[in-house]
């Protein structure tokens, strides 16, 4: 009986790589966040790390990279380099000062240009948390962000903390009021932050989206509701 | 010089993990006077649960469509003339309409055999269930014609020089144009290339679904990969490359973007 021997040849070259998925936390660190709100944010973002690591481990074909910006009087990178979630070490935020969110959007826009972003990346995920009204010119910064291809295509989520947050401004940022998540108590805030962190997993699948239907590759049905909020989930 | 083709589809690493079958399809046909190749990438998202069927229908429609044109025109001059006159929107419209007709038939079959219990009767909704891209090429002695709806790559290499034959609308992330969109022929990207001077050999045409290019670090590495496929064919011959292609593409998806990959190659050595 003849045996069909296959000569095993080495794969032709060209460096292969998983697709980067950039995830940005933009956190309001103004004075009004001081106390329970800031503590909840710090607690919840830290809590998301193991789940995000597990999600990243489940999909080695996407590299989840984390960055964080704190905005108050001015804005600054807390984690400036895109850091693989496996190496990400959370630095707690501290509250003081104003709400210069426009400056944070401006810093973000600089990082969403191509380059430094790659055109083969997965859609970036940007999560903004805020409890107040902007104290700088946020509108020009949002326009600058939206003028960028990745600014338009990014998955943008806002978490509106408490009753004084500027939901209109947050909707301008997300482009969709359903993605301005309401967090009126610490339990809800933690839930919303946890849900926002799961978006990375939803975005990391390589499935294509026909353009006319690709507003968001998100499962909106999983956004927590009031009924889902349980204090036991938090403390 | 005779032209030889090879083609392979592999299930992406991500779909293997999720136990989802390959959503891509590819087809190559070699005739005396011309060669036709097509690849298609079923979207694979939850909105498109039958996109594996949609991509198979797409490659068949393209190949059948080209063959029909040849039969109707009767000779190579008229055949080429068709693509010159009607190769852009009119041909794309005919391809899309036939794809939708065959999708409707396939869908009715699934409904009849109870594979689908509740179905919309709206054809736009049905088409979306089968959403796919489509890339095709016709290679003749004096011309080649390329056709693209959605993402993917069509590359030509001659004497080691690489050229992308279509530069479809570049979309970021996971977005693509699709046969399932309303009036997708508006987004078709076609081009007819005259090759009045004889093509020097060796040469290679490569069609690939987007999982191939997306698995490389960047465009430069993708082009390097294409060049090395060309060199491998020249060095080892198409048959040996064909036997190794499956393993190469599985490795490419595993170490790259995790998507399904289909590659179709026509070469003259």
- Specify the CATH homologous superfamily of chain B: PPM-type phosphatase domain
Helix content range of chain B = 40-55%
How many whole angstroms does the radius of gyration of chain B measure? 18 Å
Q: Hey, which two chains have the biggest interface? A: A-B, 38 and 61 residues
How far apart are the termini of chain A?
69 Å
How can the largest sheet of chain B be summarized? 5 strands, antiparallel
Count of individual helical segments of chain A: 6
- Any idea of the CATH topology of chain B? Phosphatase 2c, domain 1
> Total domains of chain A, how many?
1
Task: Note down, in words, how this protein is organized.
- Chain A contains six helices and seven strands; from the N terminus they run E-H-E-E-H-E-H-H-E-H-E-H-E.
- Chain A has helices spanning 36-58, 101-111, 138-146, 149-153, 167-174, 186-203, and strands spanning 19-28, 62-72, 74-84, 125-130, 155-161, 180-183, 209-210.
- In chain A, strands 3-2-1-4-5-6 form a six-stranded mixed beta sheet.
- In chain A, strand 2 (62-72) and strand 3 (74-84) form a beta hairpin.
- In chain A, helix 1 (36-58) runs parallel beside helix 6 and helix 2 (101-111) packs parallel to helix 3.
- Chain B has a single domain (4-268), classed as PPM-type phosphatase domain (Phosphatase 2c, domain 1, 4-Layer Sandwich), CATH 3.60.40.
- Chain B contains eight helices and eleven strands.
- At the A-B interface, helix 4 and strand 7 of A face helix 1, strand 8, helix 6, helix 7 and helix 8 of B.
């Amino acid at each position: 009986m003849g045996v069909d021997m296959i000569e095993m040849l080495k794969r032709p070259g060209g460096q292969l790589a998983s697709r980067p998925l950039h995830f940005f936390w933009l956190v309001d660190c103004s004075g009004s966040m001081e106390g329970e709100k800031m503590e909840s944010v710090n607690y919840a973002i830290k809590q998301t790390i193991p789940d995000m690591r597990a999600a990243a481990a489940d999909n080695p074909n996407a590299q989840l990279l984390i960055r964080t910006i704190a905005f108050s009087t001015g804005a600054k990178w807390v984690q400036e380099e895109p850091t693989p979630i496996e190496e990400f070490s959370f630095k707690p935020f501290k509250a003081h000062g104003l709400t210069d969110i426009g400056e944070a959007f401006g810093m973000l826009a600089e990082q969403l240009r191509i380059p430094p972003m790659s055109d083969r990346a997965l859609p970036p995920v940007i999560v903004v948390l805020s409890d107040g009204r902007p104290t700088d010119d946020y509108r020009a910064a949002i326009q600058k962000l939206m003028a960028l291809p990745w600014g338009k295509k990014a998955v943008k989520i806002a978490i509106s903390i408490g009753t004084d947050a500027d939901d209109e401004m947050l909707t301008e940022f997300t482009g969709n009021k359903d993605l301005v998540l309401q967090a009126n108590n610490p339990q809800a805030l933690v839930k919303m932050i946890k849900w926002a962190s799961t978006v990375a997993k939803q975005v990391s699948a390589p499935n294509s989206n026909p353009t006319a239907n690709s507003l968001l590759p998100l499962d909106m049905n999983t956004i927590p509701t009031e009924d889902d909020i349980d204090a036991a989930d938090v403390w | 010089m005779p032209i030889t083709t090879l083609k392979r589809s592999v299930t992406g690493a991500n779909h293997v993990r999720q136990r989802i079958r390959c959503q891509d399809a590819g087809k190559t046909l070699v005739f005396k006077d011309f060669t036709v190749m097509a690849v298609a990438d079923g979207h694979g998202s939850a909105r498109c649960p039958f996109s594996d069927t949609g991509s198979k229908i797409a490659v068949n429609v393209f190949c059948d469509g080209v063959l029909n044109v040849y039969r109707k025109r009767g000779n190579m001059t008229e055949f080429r003339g068709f693509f010159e006159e009607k190769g852009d929107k009119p041909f794309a419209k005919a391809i899309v309409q036939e794809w939708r007709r065959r999708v409707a038939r396939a869908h009715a079959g699934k409904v009849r055999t109870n594979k689908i219990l509740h179905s919309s009767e709206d054809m736009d909704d049905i088409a979306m269930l089968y959403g796919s891209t489509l890339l095709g090429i016709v290679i003749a002695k004096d011309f080649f014609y390329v056709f693209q709806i959605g993402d993917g790559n069509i590359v030509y290499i001659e004497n080691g020089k690489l050229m992308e034959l279509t530069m479809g609308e570049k979309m970021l992330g996971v977005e693509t144009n699709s046969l399932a969109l309303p009036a997708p022929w508006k987004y078709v990207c076609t081009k007819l290339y005259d090759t009045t001077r004889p093509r020097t050999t060796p040469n290679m045409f490569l069609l690939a679904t987007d999982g191939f290019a997306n698995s490389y670090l960047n465009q430069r590495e993708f082009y390097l990969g294409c060049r090395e496929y060309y060199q491998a064919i020249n060095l080892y011959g198409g048959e040996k490359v064909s036997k190794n292609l499956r393993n190469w593409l599985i490795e490419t998806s595993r170490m790259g973007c995790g998507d399904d990959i289909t590659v179709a190659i026509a070469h003259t050595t």
